[in-house]
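Comment thread on ticket #2218

A.B. wrote:
> Attaching the input chain for the structure job we discussed in standup.
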Amino acid sequence: MRLIAMSLCLACTFAQAAPPPALDLSGTWKGSFTLTSTGLAMQDLEITLRQSGRKVEGTLLMPKFRSPLTLKGTFSKGKLHLVSPHTRGLAVTLDARVKEPSHVKGTALLDYDSPSLAKKQDRTVLEMTR
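C.D. wrote:
> Ran it. Output below, let me know if you need it in another format.
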């Protein structure tokens, strides 16, 4: 009887110590960038992500930007970090804390370097839902 009680206690201890299931960000997300300086928002973003362990890759489609931006980065300990290379005068860096499996909120830095916009940066609030 004593052996059974000890076994049950050990089983309970290991069950409580098990880590929560890992959050997978893979899938299609709808998003927006809101400029911190003016409050103007760029809506209808589509972010498609593929996650493999900590590694995250995907694309960002913006309505006025004809080509998708390639995203690469990491997701670890609730923090998402994605970067795109400069494509047609724009690079994007996304940083967010993920607290819910269907909602992400953070920041995005839009880094412009083109003849029409010159060289400048816009800081935005990033929101993504699925």
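A.B. wrote:
> Thanks. Noting for the ticket: The two ends are 51 Å apart (CA to CA).
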